[in-house]
UniProtKB/TrEMBL annotation:
Domain N-acetyltransferase span(s) in chain numbering: 11-179
Pfam family, one: Acetyltransf_3
InterPro entries, sorted: Acyl_CoA_acyltransferase, GNAT_dom
Name used for this protein in its record: GNAT family N-acetyltransferase
PROSITE patterns, alphabetized: GNAT (PS51186)
Gene3D superfamilies the record matches: 3.40.630.30
Amino acid sequence: MLFPHTASRRIRLRPATTTDRADFFQTVVRAGMGSSRQVARPTTRVAKPHAAFLVVLRSTDETIGFSTLHTLDPAGHIQCGVYLDPQRAKLGVGSETVQLTINYAFATLDVDKVITQTTEASFASFGVTTEDNQASRVQADHLYFRGQLWDQYGFHVDRQEWDDYVDRKADRVLPSPLEWRAAPHQHFGIR
């Protein structure tokens, strides 16, 4: 059984509230997404997220962005969104944020697949390159931001793939000696 960890070596996920809404939209604009195409039609009501988090640097307690789980469909698929301020996010924190959010989805929700999307502009933050990416789909020239059209890459992870990943213990996201399947103990100092 997975434990819904909300802290990695460098970041912590804190629950976001409605008072964080303005900061969320400012982060989206700073990330360059303010000029992107609308995902939903104007007549479509956007559903509330199933989970929304502030992404906070553990070293400074500074909020650097947001992470969401939203749009759960009847097939058991949910979308993962990560929105980080490019001036404040360090290399690799995007990857840690995505992994914590994916793990949270599988640990707390009855889902079979977590889906996320990004562009090449964000690859470095997530530890992906154009040569080694394993995108499940690519939409050419789909988003306009940062002054140009970008291809949008779709990625997904199935529950079994995530279980295999955490069982291999191939990552160094959680602080030692924590493991994805074990609850942290207070004496480890994880807050």
